[in-house]
Recover the amino acids of this structure.
């Protein structure tokens, strides 16, 4: 993802441009967020075509109702992830209702997909130093001392980042709360 | 669609707490390809847990959940978990979180999705400020190229690219890298930025004497010199630090967005604004088509260099690019005559009154982007005429564009030909002469 930490000014300006009906703004919005929207939808639905359809629906919603975004409530990115999540989960529910006669199985499928998508979003938007530490310790299988050395930080700091990163990630299980933003790093 | 501003899971009430999931064990170090522990290591013999404080043990929980710690610490943490309820709760929570880590997939979005999504939006709510038709190909091509660059690492940014074009009927080429190509696009797109009164990337690197007069090549060379991108190898012998090669993507993309935004506002009034290319000028709407064409051609150069597939533009965009080239051909033919590269036709007077029908070649472009154009042969001021048709050339749309890009030589272009040989040759060479760096 290019340019993650854009100032909220960009968000407000984008909302104004969308509200004004500026087609060029819609293109820029797509260029910035399409891969986020598509990957979250894909994580929930596990299907390329369904993810395409969700992408279409999410951008249509934002284009038709830009006023429903309130910049005071948080970044545009988080809001768009929320819209995506809701649209994708609704689609999953509709699909599974046809295939899963048992209510409990349906609910647990929806919950799993939902948590997985939230976890992706959290990893995606957590502060880069935390993400880098998790990446080393988990995907590269470095222990925390090696992680500290790779990152050029103290061992205390490496342990702190790993713990904080996992704490953020574990909030994916807390349905209904906005994804946490660790801003302290 | 109310409530869309919450990041909600689903509409049910409070969730039952899911049963704790025990993450699958990590593969053993023997399977991981990593160095094995020292043989002197006590291995499974439980080491004596070091005497660590509650706070230190707590700080180890993340590393413990990820199994990123030493054996001695394992024993210490696990012993502590047996005694301390709050740490045990957190430990379970963090272990579950580890199960949510997921190798990010490299996602190649279908480039056609952008057009489909935007069209469906604009259909549902027509824009008050649309992107002009003549700017749509540029908007689409810049987005496609940006998507190609998305996952490029250093190897791709440094990959050598050969820029090819025709000059005075001869193949010409110049070596650069992927980053150098983007710098080239950035500097030449700057011609339009300058005409629109936007910030021009050339202004920072220009020789004051060149400012405002430099054409595409001079601009590119100036930018390359300033950023150590030419001849594009990442080892400046003077020991200076080259500009980060990746750093050209952001400015290029920002400028391309800002061009599309600005021409949407100036709209149809500005379509005729003249954009200077140094020794010639194009009206704004043609300059935007020209830049769309160059963006595609160079995206294809880049894709070839890194061995990625890359499709031609959407047919309705390709059709406008072909139309631009066809409209530029009469002037290119005149230029060839002036340069002595072709003789004026002997049999007919080549000076025709402005607006009068003149000897013409029928250019037939096949494929979804195709169409027919009558090219007046003897004067840019003449009008193409079916009655005065002396030759007929048929080419596939993409092949014609490769010819006009200088990527296929006029002799090799797969063209069906009928009629005046000399006229055909002149037109094919004139098409190749439209190419530049």
């Amino acid at each position: 993802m290019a340019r993650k930490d854009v100032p909220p000014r960009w968000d407000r300006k984008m909302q104004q441009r969308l509200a004004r009906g500026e087609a060029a703004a819609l293109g820029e919005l797509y260029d910035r967020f399409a891969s986020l929207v598509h990957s979250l939808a894909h994580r929930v639905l596990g299907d390329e075509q369904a993810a395409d359809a969700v992408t279409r629906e999410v951008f249509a919603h934002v284009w038709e109702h830009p006023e429903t975004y309130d910049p005071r409530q948080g970044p545009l990115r988080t809001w768009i992830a929320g819209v995506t999540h809701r649209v994708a989960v609704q689609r999953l529910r509709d699909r599974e209702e046809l295939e899963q006669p048992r209510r409990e199985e349906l609910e647990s499928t929806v919950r799993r997909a939902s948590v997985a998508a939230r976890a992706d979003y959290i990893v995606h938007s957590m502060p880069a130093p935390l993400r880098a530490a998790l990446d080393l310790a988990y995907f590269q299988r470095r222990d925390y001392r090696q992680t500290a050395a790779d990152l050029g930080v103290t061992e205390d700091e490496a342990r702190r980042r790993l713990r904080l990163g996992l704490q953020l990630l574990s909030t994916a299980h807390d349905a209904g709360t906005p994804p946490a933003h660790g801003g302290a790093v | 669609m109310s409530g869309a501003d919450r990041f909600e899971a689903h509409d049910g009430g409070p969730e039952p707490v899911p049963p704790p999931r025990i993450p699958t064990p990590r593969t053993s170090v023997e399977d991981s390809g990593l160095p094995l522990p020292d043989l002197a290591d006590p291995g499974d013999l439980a080491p004596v847990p070091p005497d660590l404080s509650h706070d230190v043990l707590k700080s180890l929980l993340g590393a413990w959940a990820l199994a990123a710690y030493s054996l001695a610490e394992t024993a210490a943490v696990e012993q502590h978990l047996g005694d301390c309820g709050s740490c045990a709760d957190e430990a379970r929570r963090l272990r579950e979180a580890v199960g949510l880590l997921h190798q990010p997939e490299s996602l190649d979005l279908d480039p056609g999705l952008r057009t489909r999504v935007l069209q469906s939006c604009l259909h549902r709510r027509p824009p008050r400020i649309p992107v002009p038709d003549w700017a749509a190909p540029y908007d689409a091509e810049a987005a496609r190229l940006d998507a190609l660059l998305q996952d490029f690492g250093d190897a791709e940014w440094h990959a050598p690219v050969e820029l090819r074009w025709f000059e005075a009927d001869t193949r010409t080429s110049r070596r650069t890298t992927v980053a150098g190509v983007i710098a080239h696009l950035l500097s030449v797109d700057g011609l339009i930025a300058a005409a629109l009164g936007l910030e021009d990337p050339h202004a920072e690197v220009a020789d004051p004497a060149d400012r405002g007069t430099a054409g595409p090549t001079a601009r590119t060379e100036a930018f390359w010199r300033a950023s150590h991108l030419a001849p594009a190898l990442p080892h400046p012998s003077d020991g200076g630090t080259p500009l980060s090669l990746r750093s050209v993507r952001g400015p290029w993309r920002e400028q391309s967005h800002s061009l599309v935004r600005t021409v949407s506002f100036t709209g149809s009034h500005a379509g005729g604004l003249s954009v200077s290319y140094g020794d010639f000028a194009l009206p704004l709407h043609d300059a935007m088509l020209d830049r769309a064409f160059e963006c595609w051609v160079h995206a294809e150069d880049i894709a070839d260099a890194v061995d990625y597939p890359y499709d031609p533009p959407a047919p309705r965009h390709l059709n406008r690019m072909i139309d631009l080239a066809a409209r530029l051909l009469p002037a290119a033919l005149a230029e060839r005559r002036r340069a002595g590269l072709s003789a004026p036709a002997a049999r007919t007077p080549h000076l025709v009154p402005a607006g009068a029908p003149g000897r013409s070649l029928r250019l037939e472009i096949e494929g979804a982007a195709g169409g027919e154009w009558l090219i007046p042969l003897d004067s840019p001021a003449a009008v193409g005429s079916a009655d005065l048709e002396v030759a007929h050339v048929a080419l596939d749309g993409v092949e014609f564009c490769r010819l006009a890009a200088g990527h296929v030589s006029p002799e090799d272009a797969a063209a069906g030909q009928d009629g005046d040989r000399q006229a055909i040759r002149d037109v094919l060479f004139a098409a190749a002469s439209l190419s530049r760096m």
Chain B has three domains: 18-27+43-100, 128-306, 315-433. The longest helix of chain B spans residues 315-338.
